[in-house]
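Page 37, continued from 36.
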C-alpha cells in the first residue's frame, strides 16, 4: 500500500482478488476510524465523560472521518466490499437502535443515535447510493449540533 501511495495512484490493483483484499483492509481501517459495530463500544463510554469533553470528542469528526474516507474511496472498492459494508452497517444500525431504546442517560442516547445513523449511512453506501449517503452525513451533522444544544440545555 505504501508503494501505491508513493506512486500516487491505484492502477496496480487491477486483479479482482488483490482489489478485494486491499479493499477489505481499507474497509477494516475505516471501521476502526468510525464507530462501526466491532469497534463501537468506545463512543457511549466517551459520551459518559463530562459534557465539554464529550462534546469535543463527539463533534470533532472522530466518528464521521472514516465514513468520509469510505465515500472518497468508493470508486476503488468492489461489490464484495460494498456488501460487507452494507451488512455491517445494518448490524450496527439494529444494535445501536436497540441499545439506545433501553438507555436512560441522555448523552449515551445521543451516542447511540449517532451510531445508528452511521450504520444507516453505511447501508446507503453499500447499496450504491453514495450521493444520498453523503447528503445524509451533512444533514446528520446539522441535526446532531441541534441535539447537542437541546441536551446541553436540559442538563443545565
Amino acid at each position: 500500500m505504501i508503494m501505491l501511495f508513493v506512486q500516487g495512484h491505484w492502477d496496480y490493483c487491477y486483479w479482482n482478488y488483490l482489489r478485494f483484499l486491499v479493499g477489505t483492509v481499507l474497509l477494516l481501517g475505516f471501521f476502526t476510524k468510525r464507530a462501526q459495530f466491532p469497534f463501537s463500544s468506545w463512543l457511549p463510554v466517551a459520551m459518559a465523560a463530562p459534557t465539554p469533553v464529550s462534546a469535543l470528542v463527539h463533534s470533532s469528526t472522530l466518528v464521521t472521518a472514516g465514513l468520509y474516507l469510505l465515500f472518497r474511496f468508493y470508486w476503488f472498492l468492489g461489490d464484495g466490499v460494498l456488501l460487507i459494508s452494507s451488512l455491517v452497517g445494518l448490524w450496527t444500525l439494529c444494535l445501536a437502535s436497540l441499545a439506545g431504546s433501553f438507555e436512560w442517560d441522555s448523552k449515551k442516547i445521543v451516542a447511540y443515535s449517532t451510531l445508528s445513523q452511521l450504520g444507516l449511512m453505511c447501508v446507503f453506501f453499500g447499496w450504491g447510493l453514495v450521493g444520498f449517503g453523503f447528503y445524509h452525513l451533512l444533514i446528520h451533522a446539522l441535526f446532531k449540533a441541534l441535539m447537542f444544544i437541546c441536551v446541553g440545555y436540559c442538563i443545565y
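DSSP finds eight helices and no strands in the chain. Flag for discussion at group meeting. The mean pLDDT is 76.
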